[in-house]
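#structure-requests
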Amino acid sequence: MVVCSQAVAQVAKTEAVGKGDFPALQFLPPGSVVEGISLPRYEGHRVSALLMAEKLEVLSRTTARLTQIRAYLTAKTGETTCVQLPLAHYDFTGRIMRSLNSPALLIHPHYSARGEGVIFSNVRGCGLLLGPVTTSFFSSELNNPGS
């Protein structure tokens, strides 16, 4: 009986969620694929970020590869920025998404930008669009900044 309870405690200890681990990844071995994911982030009762992907492949307890990604970052003003990527890696420890040498599209109510990759944090609501970058500003928004 004692051996059994020690074994259960040992298994529970090894499967515990560590700092930086995504809560469900310890149940999925590397190579597991989950389709149609949606990961919201809340600030109080407000959704401040939403990460959606067609597929999530578990690489480790702290990293995943995502395909066909749409990340929505919503400011307190209500403006939403959308980041679209065909492929990226997400590090749950640093809460950073990286997409290198893969087309990236950033859509904001006042502008849009295309680049060759992106590094961003949906937690901090900021990131870096890797170049070369092409940016388009919407003139109707520039002429009516208060709208």
